[in-house]
Write a structure and sequence with these properties.
about 120 residues; mainly beta; 7-stranded mixed β-sheet; 4-stranded antiparallel β-sheet
Length: about 120
């Protein structure tokens, strides 16, 4: 199992940008597909984006397509989520996950999350 720690969340105005990072330790990072999810109060956890082990392929939820970009640096054991043109409805706790399969991951490795708040 891989250990994951998210960072980079914060408060931003609508239209602004943030970059989230997820640092992995433990088992070989490059052996995992990675994904970002988010959860806002009263709602179920929602898929945001996924990336293959090599980083060659990416996939996005329709709600973030064209605004968010997932990437990874296997040398740094880190996956990123660049978020642009943020909207108040993007407010949530963002979690990264490591697993197998793409774009649907089978996973049991989750970070603790980082809060993103977008003000209108």
């Amino acid at each position: 199992q891989v250990q994951l720690v998210e960072s980079g969340g914060g408060l931003v105005q609508a239209g602004g940008s943030l970059r989230l990072s997820c640092a992995a330790s433990g088992r070989t990072f490059s052996g995992y597909s990675m994904a970002w999810f988010r959860q806002s109060p009263g709602r179920e956890r929602e898929y945001v984006a996924a990336i293959t082990r090599s980083g060659e392929m990416t996939n996005y939820a329709d709600s973030v397509k064209g605004r968010f970009t997932i990437s990874r640096d296997n040398a740094k054991n880190t996956v990123y989520l660049q978020m642009s043109n943020l909207k108040p409805e993007d407010t949530a706790v963002y979690y990264c996950a490591a697993g197998y399969g793409y774009p649907v991951l089978t996973t049991n490795s989750w970070g603790r999350g980082t809060q993103v708040t977008v003000s209108s």
